[in-house]
Amino acid sequence: MQLIHAQSGSGGLEDETCAVGDTIEIGIVAFTFRPRLVVVNAGARVGWINHDEIPYAVRFGRVRIKSPVLLRDDRFSHRFTEPGTYDYICPVDPSMCGTIIVTG
Known about the structure:
By secondary structure, the chain is mostly beta strands.
């Protein structure tokens, strides 16, 4: 997995990091998905793990992918087989969002 750090006006927070690879794990930390942007090849598996005490979930808008509520240390994963851009939110806190870009 390759991590690309993007500097932001708030000091280059980790939530601005882009992960690139075939197997990616996204951490849920301090009300953010880290990294928020992930680029994977078709067929890659992306996983989420909740590192917070607060329950969260993952829900994609245009496709029917959603996790159960994730308590601390719970995991959810999905294999992305179709190229495209997949935006998602946390339905518990809709201000939390992320993007998966799947390349062919």
